[in-house]
């Protein structure tokens, strides 16, 4: 799989709000929680994460989303639920927006990310210790955007996902080498990055 994806067109048919979930219990405990077995049922939002979303919704400054697609992990689902309730929308789980799977590092301390990211910089196709390859994450994340672009026009979509997948997606959309995804400024919990036409 390619290390470089063609850059996305500057002419977006839709607007995309790419959101990292709010601060989670996994963030609070400093743990890597990337497997569906754990991530779907446990490690939802922390109290800090719920406060972040309250603040975000009080001061919402983006276009109102027409649809919300989200990773089905608990922390992303809880994030999406709060926004869906605010705008009166239904939730649409999307497994392609899931966390990157970190293989044997599952359940380990988040200081282990550094080892994976160092390997990413050398080879974005690596699957060391069962880690999902950067190129595979880019492909599934990009596929979500590409399908929405093919099927819709003039809509605003909120996509709720995780830090690593979103950084990888943004790198792919820019047409940059995927090995450089950690050169981007890290996305903060509950942050929103806008793709598409301005408000």
Report on this structure:
One of its GO terms (molecular function) is phosphoglycerate mutase activity. It holds the Pfam family His_Phos_1. It comes from Halomonas fontilapidosi. Keywords: Isomerase. It is an enzyme of class 5 (isomerase). The chain is of the alpha/beta class. The protein has one domain: Phosphoglycerate mutase-like (Rossmann fold), CATH 3.40.50.1240. Helix content is 37%, strand content 12%. It has seven helices and five strands. It has helices spanning 25-29, 36-39, 47-58, 74-87, 113-122, 134-151, 163-173, and strands at residues 15-20, 67-70, 91-93, 156-161, 192-195. A five-stranded mixed β-sheet has the order 3-2-4-1-5. Strand 2, helix 4 and strand 3 form a beta-alpha-beta unit. The longest helix is centred in the last third of the chain and has 18 residues, at 134-151. The radius of gyration is 16 Å and the shape is globular. 37% of the residues are buried. The mean pLDDT is 94.
Write the layout of secondary structure elements.
Blueprint: E1 15-20, H1 25-29, H2 36-39, H3 47-58, E2 67-70, H4 74-87, E3 91-93, H5 113-122, H6 134-151, E4 156-161, H7 163-173, E5 192-195
Parallel strand pairs: 1-4, 2-3, 2-4
Antiparallel strand pairs: 1-5
């Amino acid at each position: 799989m390619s290390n470089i994806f063609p850059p996305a067109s500057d002419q977006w048919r839709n607007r995309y709000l790419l959101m990292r979930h709010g601060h989670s219990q996994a963030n609070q405990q400093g743990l890597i929680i990337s497997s569906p077995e754990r991530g779907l049922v446990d490690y939802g939002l922390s109290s800090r994460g719920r406060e972040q979303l309250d603040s975000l919704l009080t001061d919402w400054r983006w276009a109102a989303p027409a649809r919300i697609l989200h990773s089905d992990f608990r922390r992303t689902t809880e994030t999406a639920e709060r926004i869906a309730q605010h705008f009166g929308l239904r939730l649409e789980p999307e497994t392609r927006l899931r966390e990157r799977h970190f293989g044997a590092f599952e359940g380990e301390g988040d200081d282990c990310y550094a080892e994976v990211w160092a390997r990413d910089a050398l080879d974005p196709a690596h699957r060391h210790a069962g880690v999902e390859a950067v190129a595979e994450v880019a492909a599934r994340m990009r596929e979500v955007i590409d399908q929405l672009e093919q099927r819709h026009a003039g809509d605003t979509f909120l996509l709720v996902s995780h830090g690593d997948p979103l950084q990888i997606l943004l790198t792919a959309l820019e047409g940059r080498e995927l090995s450089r995804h950690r050169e981007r400024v890290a996305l903060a919990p509950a942050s929103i990055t806008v793709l598409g036409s301005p408000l």
